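Inputs:
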Amino acid sequence: MSQESNATPKKRGRPPSAAAQKRALEAAHEILMTEGFGRMTIEAVAARSGVGKPTIYRSWANAQELAMAALLVNRLPEAEVGGGTAQAALVAQMRGLVTAFASTRGRQITMALAAADPESEFTKAFRNRVILSSRNAGRVILEEALARGEIVPPVDMDALLDMIYGPVFFRLLVGHRPVSPEFGDAIVRTALRAVAPSGA
Amino acid sequence: MSQESNATPKKRGRPPSAAAQKRALEAAHEILMTEGFGRMTIEAVAARSGVGKPTIYRSWANAQELAMAALLVNRLPEAEVGGGTAQAALVAQMRGLVTAFASTRGRQITMALAAADPESEFTKAFRNRVILSSRNAGRVILEEALARGEIVPPVDMDALLDMIYGPVFFRLLVGHRPVSPEFGDAIVRTALRAVAPSGA
DNA sequence: TTATATTAACGTTACGTATCGTAAAGATAT
DNA sequence: ATATCTTTACGATACGTAACGTTAATATAA
């Protein structure tokens, strides 16, 4: 623990400005929430934030990636995995999810996701962190419930998870019915009835 | 019914060309399927079809509407509502749905829907005809099953329907798992187990 | 004759890139 | 120690391209 020979070769030159990135992300988020995805152009973000276009392009390849990064900053609250029944845990989580997505934010996220290159690494990271994090937490909850007999086989776990989390995005995308807390509750209740031990 | 006095006032001048519309729709559809929604620009459609831009704009307000119209031309096959158990009917319908959407077409539809103005009349028509037609047919199937006791209360019909059709679009949008026929089967099976009479 | 079709061009917006001079930080020499 | 390289990022500006949606001019078909 002494020589700096191979440890961190000390970068030269002006360091990238974290403040500039932060300002760009904030401006992007503001535009997304007030004017929508279609108006969140790189030029608009540059004008609003005072950050130069080339600086923005140095951090993000295009407007879609910047939008996803901006939507990623304020994460959704993580689900409380431990304690209680699976139903209680899922209902609590679903309440948070519905609150977070039944808003401008939810629509913007859906649009960003649909518009983005599905193969891009950025898109995959976004999906995993924003969309699938709830689903992954749900998997933990359901596997624990399965282990202690609260739910019973046959359980097609992936199908069951998509039946719980898919409807929220379906309503968000199609807009035929509102995304309400009661809706979230009904989804969880119905899904769990399909894998309940008795016919209760 | 004879005189043309107030019925059909005999249009004067050159009539709109149905052929031009058709050519534009075909070109739009081809571009959607081969190059994707992002590259289906009005100019590209005009160039490919030989129809002038102003003519295209006379029929559709923007590229989104043209895209939806093009996707609307070849409708999805309607579900066979009558006969058999609810499970058989839903599985058959879901097979068709999965086949139709587990393709370029499905992704294009999802993108068009996410990108479109949710309040536009065109968008609403598109949702009703392309997205919700399956769901509506499913409602008929399930209500008949409910009437003859094949499924039993409590049934939150809207939640149940979204649990059946939502997951398909969820997978299409997020792309975390493939949309396969087996997946469709599992969804129908699991959903019906939630409303089955006994604990079977 | 009159409404539509086609073509061409228009102004606008945003794209993504290149270049300019400046700012900030480590390296180097006095 | 302090001044001067060197390197890298910065903000500003301008560029050529692409597509937008509109308009004017001409051709064409009832």
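Chain B touches chain A through 44 residues (CB under 8 Å). Flag for discussion at group meeting.
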